[in-house]
Every structure is written in C-alpha cells, then in structure tokens.
Amino acid sequence: MRVSFHGVRGSTPCHGREIVRYGGNTSCVSVDVPGHTPIVFDLGTGLRYFGQTRSTEEPFSATCLLSHLHWDHIQGLPFFKPLLRDGSDVHIYAPSQEGDLTVEQVFADTIKPPLFPVHFAMLPGMIKFHEVWDDEFTIGGDSGDDIEVMSRSIPHVGNTVGYRMTWRETSITYMSDHQMPVDGSFAATQGALDLCHGTDLLIHDAQYTPSEFADKRDWGHCTVEYAVWLAAECGVRKLALFHHDPAHHDDIMDILAGAAIDCGRKMGVEVFAAREGLVVAL
C-alpha cells in the first residue's frame, strides 16, 4: 500500500514562505491498494491536488472515508476535477448526524448558491453516501481481495469517527481530529483504543503544544505528546503527526517533530510529521 499526504493542516488552509516544507492545505490522504480504486481519507483542500494526479481521459472511481463534516474536511470536494467527468463515481462513508439530518443533506445545503455558484446536484459525477458510526464493512476490489474497514466514534466537537482499514494483514488508522481528556491526562475511549491497537500506521491529530491545549482544552484536539503516548500505549508501529495547527510554521514543526521522534524512539514507536507530498509505503 502507498499512502500519500495531500493536505496535513487543521482548521484552515494557510500559505506563506514559512510553511513551504510542511504545506498549508487541509486534511486529505490517499491510499493506493493493488486491485482497488483509491481510498481517500477526508476531503479538505488537499483533495484538489490529489485530483491533479489523476488521469483526465477516463472516469474516476474512489472511496472516501470522511471523519466528520467540519469545513476544513469537506471544502475540497467541489474543486475536485475528476468529479466533473461524466461516469465518475465516489462512495463517501461519513458519520451519521443527529435527528433526521442526513450527510447528503449537509452537502446539498452547503454546496449551493449563494455559498457556491452551482448546486451540489449539478456535479456531473455520481456521489453515493453511506452513513456509519460504530461499524465494520468491506470495500471490494477487482480481484475480490477485500479491504476491511472499522469505524468507531471518537471524541471531538460534533459527530466524528476514526477509521481503521486492513488489507492483507496490513492496517492504517486515521484519526485526524481527536479530543484528549480536557484535564490534560492521558486516557482514551475504547473506540479509540480499538482503532489504534497494533496498527502499522496511525495518522493522528497532533495540533497543540501543552500550553496551547491549556487555552483550547475543549476545542476537540490533542497535544503532540498525547499522540505519541496513544501510539505507544496501543503498540503502533509508525505514527504520523497530523492536522498541524495553521500557526505552526516550519521551524516550529521541526522542533515539535524532533521532540516527538526522540520520545517515540524511547517508547518503541517510529514517529514522523506528515507533510504535503510525502509518500509512505507499507
């Protein structure tokens, strides 16, 4: 499997000379699995750049595992050029919402005038929605070699899930937005532990320093130190620090990543900070 990072920021896209090494697009990660159409985690502004890597000559098919419906995780969808081709189709798995509201309604109410020039239904490609919570399902491939997916609800602001995908005993866990305990302690819900246990690659929220968390303890995220602790607690092989704060420029990221790498080494976890353009082979 090849894991490609197209957007690694949280909250809002950003730009400038001070962030050129890590990038400024919001959450989007693609996974190429032999015999399968692409798997895409989240639809942030990095999705536009993923779209530029796909063929312009034929319809596009993919599966998206969407963590939640906040702006920074969905705003790339209407700018995803492959959806402008007739015959393209994308299956989006996303957390169920409160009451009678459906995920499809959220997109239809967001991508329309006056917020956007055209209606969501006018996009030529087909989008099929699947609502999930604490579920298990499979994604089929051409060879019948299915990908197994686990979704679990995790703490954040609003309905949010993390995902674990497994193919031929290799697993990737994606938890882009994860609220650690507001008192700053290190503990996790059973759902989060289930997703992370023994996974080969954990892509995890690492937005704050401890001092930042003290001021934003209920904003739905966690510290770099918490991400490393969770990875070590669950026997994770590799940890990708993800959902970087837009205020963290490259030099700050180098310092945070360096400390996390040292800490991970002592705890038996290989740690790196995700950056745009990075490809990891599993």
Structure explained in plain terms:
- The chain is built from seven helices and 14 strands.
- With 282 residues, the protein is an alpha/beta fold.
- It has a seven-stranded mixed β-sheet.
- Strand 2 and strand 3 form a beta hairpin.
- The radius of gyration is 18 Å and the shape is globular.
- 47% of the residues are buried.
Main features:
282 residues, alpha/beta, 7-stranded mixed beta sheet, 7 helices
Question: What can be said about this structure in brief?
Answer:
The protein is an alpha/beta fold. The chain has helices spanning 46-51, 71-74, 103-110, 190-196, 210-215, 224-233, 250-267; strands at residues 2-7, 28-32, 39-41, 61-65, 89-95, 126-132, 135-139, 147-153, 161-167, 170-175, 201-205, 238-242, 270-273, 279-281.
Task: Provide the fold topology.
Layout: E1 2-7, E2 28-32, E3 39-41, H1 46-51, E4 61-65, H2 71-74, E5 89-95, H3 103-110, E6 126-132, E7 135-139, E8 147-153, E9 161-167, E10 170-175, H4 190-196, E11 201-205, H5 210-215, H6 224-233, E12 238-242, H7 250-267, E13 270-273, E14 279-281
Parallel strand pairs: 3-4, 4-5, 5-6, 10-11, 11-12, 12-13
Antiparallel strand pairs: 1-2, 1-14, 2-3, 7-8, 8-9, 9-10
Helix pairs in contact: 6-7
Number of helices: 7
Sum up the overall morphology in one term. Answer: globular
- Uncertain runs: none
β-strand number:
14
Characterize the largest beta sheet: strand count, sense, and whether it forms a barrel. Answer: 7 strands, mixed
Strand order of the largest sheet: 6-5-4-3-2-1-14
In angstroms, what is the radius of gyration?
18 Å
| Helix share bin | 10-25%
Q: Spell out the helices and strands N to C.
A: EEEHEHEHEEEEEHEHHEHEE
- For the termini, the CA-CA separation is 5 Å
Structural class: alpha/beta
* Overall pLDDT: 95
